[in-house]
């Protein structure tokens, strides 16, 4: 747990970020949590800090998602544990999927507001700091767009 790490209030999230998202703390989801616009243009400043993540919609619920191709099944399970540790420290939890023994998908949104909050982007940035053992066949978002 990062003691003393600053959290980002809803007002600060609209004004701008003076630090990277990964250095911030998720704020508690008790009380009012401000849902961000689901318009991609409005989310650009957040998405720019997590370039490997995609903005998706499932039904009417906007989410951010990242896919990984892991070295093997055990590495995928180990990565789940590492994500769990980050999620527990932040008290904000993603949806995790392991398919085909190598493909890990992480989806993040705030269940309470059925949409995206600043917390989702903070968690994604913290997950990005993890260094999983990827398959030699893993493709970055840019590589996937090229193919």
From TrEMBL:
Record bears the keyword Lyase: yes
Mind listing the UniProt keywords for this protein, alphabetically? Lyase
A GO molecular-function annotation: 4-alpha-hydroxytetrahydrobiopterin dehydratase activity
Catalysis: reaction(s): (4aS,6R)-4a-hydroxy-L-erythro-5,6,7,8-tetrahydrobiopterin = (6R)-L-erythro-6,7-dihydrobiopterin + H2O
A single GO BP term for this record reads: tetrahydrobiopterin biosynthetic process
Look up the EC number in the record and give it.
Answer: 4.2.1.96
Q: At the top level of its lineage, which domain of life is listed? A: Eukaryota
Q: What class of enzyme is it?
A: lyase
- Provide the family line: Belongs to the pterin-4-alpha-carbinolamine dehydratase family.
Q: Which PANTHER family match?
A: PTERIN-4-ALPHA-CARBINOLAMINE DEHYDRATASE
For this entry, the protein name equals 4a-hydroxytetrahydrobiopterin dehydratase
Q: Which organism is it from?
A: Norrisiella sphaerica
Classification lineage = Eukaryota, Sar, Rhizaria, Cercozoa, Chlorarachniophyceae
């Amino acid at each position: 747990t990062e003691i003393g790490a600053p959290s980002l209030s809803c007002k600060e999230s609209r004004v701008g970020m003076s630090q990277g998202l990964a250095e911030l703390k998720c704020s508690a989801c008790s009380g009012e949590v401000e849902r961000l616009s689901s318009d991609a243009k409005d989310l650009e400043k957040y998405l720019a800090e997590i370039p490997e993540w995609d903005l998706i919609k499932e039904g009417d619920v906007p989410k951010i998602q990242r896919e990984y191709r892991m070295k093997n099944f055990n590495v995928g399970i180990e990565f789940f544990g590492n994500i769990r540790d980050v999620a527990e420290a932040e008290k904000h939890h993603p949806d995790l999927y392991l398919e085909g023994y190598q493909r890990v998908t992480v989806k993040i949104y705030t269940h309470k507001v059925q949409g995206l909050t600043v917390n989702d982007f903070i968690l994604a940035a913290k997950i990005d700091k993890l260094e999983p053992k990827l398959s030699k066949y893993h493709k970055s978002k840019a590589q996937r767009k090229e193919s």
